[in-house]
Design a protein that fits this description.
There is one protein chain. With about 280 residues, the protein is an alpha/beta fold. It is built from 10 helices and 12 strands. Helix content is about 35%, strand content about 20%. The strands form 3 sheets. An 8-stranded parallel barrel has the order 3-4-5-8-9-10-11-12, surrounded by 5 helices. A two-stranded antiparallel ribbon has the order 1-2. A two-stranded antiparallel sheet has the order 6-7. Helix 2 packs parallel to helix 10, helix 7 packs parallel to helix 8 and helix 9 crosses helix 10.
Length: about 280
Amino acid sequence: MQLHPNSVGSYNLETRHLGQTGLSLSKIGLGTVKFGRNQDVKYPQSFALPDLSVLKKLLDLARELGINYLDTAPSYGLSEERLGKLLVGQRKDWIIVGKVGENFENGRSLYNFTCAHFESSLVRSLRRLRTDYIDVLLIHSDGSDLDILNNDDLIDAMQSFRRRGLVRAIGASTKTVDGGIRALELMDVAMVAYNPNYTPERAVLDYAVKNNKGVLVKKALASGHIDRFAGEDPIKTALNFIFGHPGATSVVVGTINPAHLIHNVEACANAQPQIANG
């Protein structure tokens, strides 16, 4: 389906409560990897980083479409700094999900799971974003989920950030079922991979439903490899499947293409969820 970027309709994009955090997120969130990084990424096509004027128009469009959730991280290159410039005067319009634990330096990812690094990383993110709080702060796991989450000092540090008002909710972006469930046992939110062709982490969504916790879904569109999904509209296929599970709060989709953003929102608003079995 081809949509002109100016053909913005009224799509009635639903918001959902993020567990017990008190936050309500649009069912589609805008991922901002492509705002700040084009090295060592898994998208099917290469791309140049857009200039700020292009990104401003994209954010204006996202807000007009009903999106209120932005996903960023120190590992997304210039994303935080660019968002800080773009969101001046409109911070209260957005729910920002940030991360600690992973940086992107000299073309590669570096991980650091220490309390000192978590503190300095959060302070740096707040400065870059030009804000005094982040709505949701996630530990950016390298895959050793349980080793990270069973470190009591790190969890205490995350809880301290929440107590001090630096963040409103805490959690982890995990890569394993056990990690996702452990994140929800200890904190408020898990970010997990889930789509029609990848379902191992469904157990995390099941746990979230039973315990009223929040789940953000990454890799919903397989990092742009939508040809992997069946149907006339693969995006709608994926969103129908994901939102067929009541544990899915919001899907984060990274794009810098206005037409793609409109299509994602339209597909979400018109989705007819296929209820997952098992």
